[in-house]
Amino acid sequence: MSKKYVRYNSLNSGNSIGTLFSSLGYETDRFMLAKSYFDCREYYRCAFHLKDCKSPKAVFLKLYAKYIAGEKKKEEDSEGILKPKDGITSNTELITIIKELDDYFTKYDTEDPFLLYMYGIIMSKKKNEKLAISKLIKSVSLYPYNWSVWMELLSCIKSYELLCEIIPKLPKHIMTKFFILTANQEFFQPMQNLQGLIQELDRIFPDLPFLVVQKALINYHNLNYTESEATFDQVIKKDPHRLDDMDTYSNILYVMEMKSKLAFLAQLSSATDKFRPETCCIVANYYSLKSEHEKAIMYYRRALTLNRDCLSAWTLMGHEFVELKNSHAAIESYRRAIDANNKDFRAWYGLGQAYEVLDMHYYSLYYYQRAAALKSMDPRMWQALGNCYDKLERFDDAIKAYKRALQVSEMDPLILFRLGILNEKIQDMKSAAFYMKTCLQEEQNEGVTDETSKARLWLARYELNLSNWEQAQMYASNLIHGTPHEIEEARAIVRDTRSRIESERRDSFINR
């Protein structure tokens, strides 16, 4: 059963039992019976026993039970992950629910936070995000302590610009601060932009695990893997059986190639609860690191069987299909990830890579542009865009993209070398030489790399064409790393320049 189906096991969070009962009136007994059925996951049975109830809480539980039952049936009808019907089946209860909600609001002219939340969910499912956002903002204004409403609101916000427009409309409340922090983390904002907010919440809630994890996630999104890994280490020491967000921790261990630590995390999470989507993703990451891609896919499928909206499972399964050269399955996985959350740059970036493998560069360009718009401070997005523009022979755009990559990162020999080559293609040899020399200077920081060696050989050819024999000889003679062909070419340049220098010296001596 998906985690999302049992998320709402308490309708009176933050309220006293007496307050709840007083709002239910004579429907209290029926509500408590239906709530018991809901807790036992008998959703249609729950809805049936509430069919004549009129109180807002009872109506919400009835409609929410119908919604969950419809979602459950939708998944059963889809026949499995990436099967022919997967992704095209729909929740047949949505039409009934929206009609009942409209009738209820018209008849009773009331604004209950839970019913507004239900309305927001349905509008979101119907892709009417504008109306969904309006209803969800009303819901959190009336009752700010329902975190599920905040998360539903965040799922409706498709851009950082829209988030900035919505924030002034939110209630002045401590829960709003938690939402702003989470939303900024979701939109990959840098740590320095959130430092003040984190410090403020830290003063109110010292050592709150949620805040500690948010710091780790922000560092992760900003590629500070070492700091993020250290923070997650602290979390797991204090709460070793925590599974929330541990799939992200496994991603960090995967990137840092900490195989033994990832194996320990997989073992620990399996011992805690082997049927959680997070556990399945952790185990899948472990198998992926061992290059056992088929087993990794099996566990990602298991995670998605437990929760179809598990974004990381869709995205990472796409990566595994790319490794197996199954581009079409990879594309479908990435598309499903975007359907679950179109704010995830990894899915857009993965689609770009998949279409690039298929040599469909215009498609690839579109998806890389979407990824770069979401993660504009990540140099990898701009490098991918530059490479795509290069293949489409849009050299000026490629140069702009690579320059943007340099602006958001440290000097990278690969980017500098690509800029040199692109300037050569547009016949700007002076700029090409500048970037090649800058690339070569990075040997002092990075050591000898393939790019610095190629830049050295390029500069040797460049100086040779300008008849600067001594400069050409200097570059070529210092080439000690490269392919056999490159080293042989460098030796040929050394021989050629040496003979030319000697010839010039003889001519100079004779002319004297």
UniProtKB/TrEMBL annotation:
One GO BP annotation of this record: cell division
SUPFAM superfamilies (alphabetical): TPR-like (SSF48452)
Gene3D superfamilies with a match to the protein in the record: Tetratricopeptide repeat domain
Record bears the keyword Cell division: yes
A GO cellular-component term linked to this record: anaphase-promoting complex
Superkingdom of origin organism: Eukaryota
Keywords, alphabetical: Cell cycle, Cell division, Mitosis, Repeat, TPR repeat, Ubl conjugation pathway
InterPro entries linked to this entry: APC8, TPR-like_helical_dom_sf, TPR_rpt
Domain Cdc23: 26-216
Protein name, entry field: Subunit of the anaphase-promoting complex/cyclosome
Species per Swiss-Prot/TrEMBL record: Nadsonia fulvescens var. elongata DSM 6958
